[in-house]
Amino acid sequence: MGLVLALSGDTMITRGAVVRATPAAEALRTLLREADVTFTNLEMVTADHAGQHTSHPLNPTLTADARVLDELADIGIDVVSFANNHALNLGVPGMAGTIRELAARRLAHAGAGNSLEEATLPAYVDRQAGSVAVIACTSTFGTGDDASGPADLMPPRPGLNPLRFHTRLRVPPGQLTALRAAHRDLGLDEQLKYVVDMGFLPPLPDERDERLFGQVFRAADEPAVETWCDSRNLERIQRWVAEAAERADVVVVSVHGHEQGRALTEPAAFQREFAHAVIDSGADVVAGHGPHRLRGIEFYRGRPIFYGLGNFVDQIHLQDRLTPHSYDVFGAAPGSPGARRAVTSPGFPAHPEYARSVVATLTFEDGDLTGVELWPISLGRDRPAARRGTPELASGAESAAIGAELTELSKPYGTRLRPRGEWFTVHAAADHDLR
Questions:
Q1: Do β-strands 123-127 and 79-81 pair in parallel, antiparallel, or remain unpaired?
Q2: DSSP per-residue letters across 292-344
Q3: What is the gyration radius of the CA atoms in the chain, in angstroms?
Q4: Backbone angles phi, psi at 22, to 5 degrees
Q5: Where is the Capsule synthesis protein CapA domain positioned along the sequence (predicted)?
Q6: How far apart, in Å, are the Cα atoms of 13 and each of 135, 291, 389?
């Protein structure tokens, strides 16, 4: 008896009726409910607006009534990631309240908790067909949103499970010389010397590197952005992945990140490093989300990595409550009707690529992956506002366009998609090499 796992992307749900009265929407509900375990990334604080907004610039506060979680349960969601840059939008009270509301509906969550270890702890969903563990983390988060462990005389800090990373900017020597001169002429050398001399900033370990404008630079023949995982964060997550692999039939690692490579659709180098490392530690699937659009699919050691599943529910434009910072960022007068338009436009609706998404279903037999299918979904960007942003299975030209986009994005990894009517099967570089 096989176990079917369904994966979806970013869920920004603010109102009801996630599934509309259309055959395509009902078919999606059936697909999700018939899976043994269905996952999404909850990118909302759903604690009936408890807490105080803590949003950072260009990070709108996403909140909703707790009743929207009933909608997710109704369409078959079993477990959510709550490690993302919106989990602490209403501070610790909002995060803790959302966790309580999820538990009240028997929706499992991973990625946030009262301490760093609790935030890293896997969520387990047990079914007759098998057991699934989900570990969730995020590389995109605001200062103070990350959980911490206790110190000798200090309690732990509640928050999310962080995946920190390091960045080095490589530039040609001529550009580096010009940057040095500008840094000196602006008086920033003195500021940097002060914080280093005071011990607030440690010296760089490699003498080939230097700090300029708050970034680490190194001379190189060609410009490039280097990123790599923080070893302490990576090793901590890997330990829990190995633990989960001993206790579940299937281990899913969910990672939320807005970072990119040279293009928006290309993952940053550290994201690939992370995905490969957790698979080496026992993960069966890596589910990436955060860029709100599709990215390619890679098979590593026969296990799939989804670098971007896209949006699943996008009802940001239907939010009732906006924070003062939202008005400030978008230059709208508080209370003005134009504020809603300023916050949400141009936004996702103006860009069709953010309405092209997929739900992935994976079949496992005795813990081994035997099949991967992709189901294109439409968020109806051309519908009236009240109905826009809710998912249904795509068909016809829209389904074909989503398949074509993912095919192109997955080519660099040697992954192929094969059409099967309105859906697609996914294959590694060697046909049917899924084990």
A1: unpaired
A2: SSB--EEEETTEEEES-B-EEEE-GGG-S---HHHHHHHT--TT-THHHHHHH
A3: 22
A4: -130, 150
A5: 4-316
A6: 22, 17, 9
**% the chain with pLDDT above 90:** 78
The answer to whether 267 and 295 have CB atoms below 8 angstroms apart is yes
Q: How many CB atoms sit inside 10 A of residue 89's CB?
A: 27
Contact 283, 242 (CB under 8 A): no
Rounded CA-CA distance 33/107 in Å is 14
> Largest Cα–Cα distance in the chain?
69
Quickly tell me which residue has 């281990």 as its tokens.
251
Half-sphere exposure of 63 (CA within 13 A, CB side): 23
- Identify which of 146, 169, 30 has the alpha carbon closest to the alpha carbon of residue 85: 146
- Rounded CA gap, 101 and 117, in Å? 21
> Residue 157 carries which DSSP code?
B
In the chain the domains, ranked by start, together with CATH numbers, are 3-135+251-258+269-427 (3.60.21), 165-227 (no CATH)
Q: Which pairing describes strands 130-138 and 123-127: parallel, antiparallel, or unpaired? A: antiparallel
Q: Is the pTM of this model over 0.70?
A: yes
Report whether 361 contacts 5 (CB < 8 A). Answer: yes
Cα 350 from Cα 375, distance rounded (Å): 23
Residue 135 in tokens: 């570990």
The pLDDT tens digits of the residues spanning 27-85 come to 999 999 999 999 999 999 999 988 888 867 667 788 999 999 999 999 999 999 999 99
Cross-sheet strand order for the sheet of 224-229: 210-212, 215-219, 165-171, 224-229
Helix (H) or strand (E) holding 324: helix 324-330
Using alpha carbons, select from 59, 63, 163 the residue that is nearest to residue 111: 163
Beta strands in 78-190 (DSSP E): 79-81, 108-110, 112-113, 123-127, 130-138, 159-160, 165-171
* Burial of 367 (C-beta count, 10 Å sphere; 0-12/13-18/19+): middle
Instruction: Provide φ and ψ at 313, rounded to 5°.
Output: -130, 130
Alpha-carbon 58 to chain mean position: 17
